[in-house]
Design brief:
Layout (H helix, E strand, L loop, with lengths): L2 H14 L2 H7 E8 L11 E3 L1 H15 E12 L4 E12 L5 E13 L2 E9 L1 H8 L4
Parallel strand pairs: 1-6
Antiparallel strand pairs: 1-2, 3-4, 4-5, 5-6
């Protein structure tokens, strides 16, 4: 399985909202860093698959019906893949649409996702949960 395949499994899991598949894609030593200012997330740095699921993805799925869609893939050195694309979805409380660019830098080890550095347009996310017209 290629590094791209490993990353793509994660994207498919998030697109279907499959928490078990998200956990299965993550390495036991998974580390995740989320863009500061992200609404909903309870942590901006997570250590371990369960902490990432509980502190990042579950709060986001609670407040948004959204998923990342990869558009450009860049294979790096040392088992690194960088993906750019857009998050697409809606904020559950307001019904506002979200389209936010992202860059994900993934590190892969042993056929699993070892680390993620997430960069995104947090203003788009915050605007979607804002009550302002």
């Amino acid at each position: 399985m290629s590094n791209r395949d490993v990353v793509d499994k994660f994207y498919k899991a998030t697109q279907s909202g499959d928490a078990a598949a998200i956990l299965a894609a993550l390495h036991p030593r998974f580390e995740g860093w989320v863009a500061p200012g992200m609404p909903s997330v309870e942590v901006t740095q997570a250590h371990g698959p369960e902490a990432a699921l509980a502190g990042i993805w579950q709060p986001v799925f609670r407040d948004f019906e959204i998923a990342p869609f990869a558009e450009e893939w860049f294979d790096g050195r040392y088992d690194t893949v960088t993906v750019t694309g857009h998050y697409r979805g809606t904020a559950r409380a307001t019904g506002k649409h979200v389209t936010a660019e992202f860059a994900h830098i993934w590190h892969i080890a042993d056929g699993k996702l070892l680390a993620l550095h997430q960069y995104t347009d947090t203003w788009q996310w915050r605007e979607a949960v804002s009550d302002a017209a």
